[in-house]
Amino acid sequence: MEEFDIWQRWGLGLNDKEFANAFTALGVLAAAAARTRATGTLAASRQCSARPDLETALGKMLPSLLSKAHRSDRPIAWWYPIGHAAISHRTRRVKLSSIDPKALAQCWSNVLGSSSFNKMRFAGNGYPANEPIKVWFRLLLESDPGDQSAFLELAAPHEHLFWKWPLRLGYLPENSAESLVNSAVGYWPSNELARAARIDRDNANCDVLVFNGSTSKLMKAMLDLTVPHKCNLIICQGELEDGSAAGKELLGVISARSRARGYVFLTPGTTAQDLSLALNKFVEHLSHNEPLDQAVCGAFARDNKMDPAVFLSRDLADLRIEHLVEQTHIRLKAMEPGTRLDIKPETLNRMGLSAKATGKDIGDARHLAKVLSTSRNAITYKTESSGATGLAEINEAIKRAKPPQESRKAMAARPVRRPHRELKHAVKKAPQRFLQQRTFIKRGNEFIDERNALRQGVPTLIRVRIGFPDEQWSSLRRGEAFAIVFPEKMLPQDMDKWRLTVVFAEPNHVKIPMRKEIILPREGQSEECEFGFVPAQHATFEGRVTVLHRGRVLQTGVISAVVLPDEQTARPPNARIDFTELSLVRSHMDDLEGRREFDLAFVMNHTVDERPRLTAISSKHAWLSDLSTCEPMVNNINNELTKVADLEKDYRGGLGNKENIDLLVTLARIGHELYGAIVMDQLMVSGNQKEFGTKMEYIQIVSTKTDALMPLEFIYTVETPKKDATLCPNMVTVLKETDKNHRIDMAKTLFEDTCQKAEMNEKKCEYRTKNYVCPMGFWGISKVIERHMVTPALKPLGYDFFLQSEQTSSRTELELTGPAIVAASKKVTPDMLSRVLSVCAERLGVPPQEAQDWEQWVKLVDTYAPHILLAMPHTDGNGTNTTLEINGKTLASSDVTSGHVHKNNEKTYPLVALLGCDTAGTALDYGAHISWFRRYEAALVISTIAKVFGGHAAAVAEQLIRGLTQEKDRPERVGEIIREIKRRAMLEGPLMALCVVAFGDADWKLK
Questions:
Q1: How far apart, in whole angstroms, are the C-alpha atoms of residue 831 and residue 828?
Q2: pTM score, two decimals?
Q3: pLDDT digits (tens, 9 = 90+) for 267-302
Q4: Contact partners, residue 308, CB within 8 Å, separation at least 6
Q5: What DSSP state is assigned to residue 154?
Q6: What is the DSSP string of 48-68?
């Protein structure tokens, strides 16, 4: 408080208003002095005395300093006044502390009284790092004219601004801000203009986060979140720990974690009701198109005396609701032609746009986009119910809108596979962008372009970007002359730029994968990222480039080249550096900003010499793993499960059967070997053990080849159990309950409150030792795993890529009602098939349709357009000879057509279950049939990862239908539902439900 003590002594004798005016004026003068020093025209301050006419000079200087900012509607620069700072007066230097405080206060009052300086905005800088802020910051808001705003400038270089309207008011789980946020959105106008948003994995982002607690508690809460949270502004009802330099460090950590560009700290003693009312006032101020700093100070300083301390970046302070109109315009423009919005004429009337659209034009998305583009300056914000409410109504209508029926039919009729010529024409037609690379090698003291080969020991740089065709850049391509377009139209269309992660991994020359971030703007080239390395002694180079957004893999390709031993070795004929093998993982990315973020992404592929590789990517790290040593473990898992299939009767029931517990022990012992080989030896390297071992609950696995499937679901993370280990006593206790339904509920509670928390290192469990086997130790039981099997198109057929059905912003729910189509192998007994048919009729409300062969299957699909397709086939053969058998009739995987999935010319995006003998394939063919069902836009393909006997397949099918249609306490999304089905199977049987895997989007919600 040393600096502020100087000014308090300087202002003795002034009343509160006079001292606030004098101190505010000092900061304006100090900012002018700081700017002058920066230009080098003002020497260091010297001791001097004020001249008699200084008051007259200040009377001219202050209006000049204020008017420029006021005319441009920009914040007025204000610097914390340092006692020895000085201003120029004629030929002399005048120290600020030598100015008469009474005269300066009067001068400030006179200047404001004789001018139109109202709604002033102050942007503060230069304040001492080791002194409290609130004691002097409040003076800026207490000075004349009394309706001004003030904020301390915050450097926030992290993330670009992205706001939604209605405003998303967020709160963290288990924080008392939840009740006050929910209360705030119940008042007018927040009930129309704001929405409460619980921050969790399903909804990691908001516009304004409200938090009850100190800065330290806020930082801890941010670090404890399972996924990174993003917001722009944090309103914190708690102590601002600003008494030392540590205060700024705390804000820096919070900003790094949340990307926040602003903070408002309020008096801790404010009641919940008062704060709810103040939040509502904040929304009200924004609705009048006030800059954000004015809305903050109006709501929390003038309307409600909450003594705020405000930190904002300059762009955040300048944000107005009128700036959000462009986002709405972009969203409307990106909608399918003919799309209509459910809005009424009153919406445009209240915005002042009633003359711009009439009759049928009112709901037309494209026409409305044109109206907003050409007439945005005509929108009025005089009242809360005018422009702000109209904009909210349009945005809500966009959420509800669906493509026109004729557009949906056209999409359904569109071939899944496109010939080269059609796509070539599309590339020429529009200014499209591509994932690109450029390779450089060092010659002398500079790096030069290299397009043919790499050299051992020669420093090499690879640059990656997303950009337009350029002779100097190699675009990702399929075949000799066809470049693959980057799917930019699938990205969130209401953003002006996107942050993408790029990972570079190479098994022979780069020890540790490299991870970079780039910004892709809406137009133009992306930023470039650079990967440097020195090629080792290996003749081939295969550098995999993987592009991710929010923890999910979007696109991946390989840079391949020969590596020559020295400069003298001639390169082979036709040698060149290629960028090929596109894997388009996501066909729709329009809602990724609002989607759950995955903790870990795995990309599985094979090198040119057919060695299996795994690239692992988290929010902070990337790893490369060699899977060659895992093949014996995979075979052992498959062999153990085959024994169960061959002796099905011995393994009936759940964990009450000793045979099942012994099997679980055996699988755990093999699974822990997998954990050691993949995770402990290769991924959990020094420096990231803690990150990898905790909160890795949501995992995405992308297999770039149909034979690159690895049963990661069987990885066992708990200590290896002894061969004679017994089941965890917690589970034994549950199994002793007499009431079956009560037992399952208790098991779920134990799983979540004890086992799952122990798995996430949030709670200790005394039974996690060698003496016991813990079901939660398996990844397939403890984690949500989203699998994608991406098959690059078959070049001989001229196919390029395949669209895969997944949830989007306009299609988030999977419909399960209606008759299911069911078929079974001859190996499934009539009694077991009858149980499956019965449970389908009971839980779906309509009798299922049984297909006797694949030809009838197609006819039934065309007749009933089913939402569930359930087959319990027997798989035979391998490679192109793989077949699926039902009722003695076989179907080759490559003979699967769209008719096996959809009604003719319709897209129902069904859930397909293929439950049978190794239908996903682990040690055998790795299931090409899954790829074909996904290519024809099955929303999900649920399969089994090992050999499953017919009786077990039917039991798993029964469990699956019951779990998918469960009404009480069912998880919301299919990823958690599949995990819940497996957990229940642990208790009831069959244990073979452990083999169930799902290919497709884990974020689908079931209707």
A1: 8
A2: 0.67
A3: 888 899 999 999 999 999 999 999 999 999 999 999
A4: 264, 265, 266, 296, 297, 300, 301
A5: -
A6: ----TTHHHHHHHHHHHHHHH
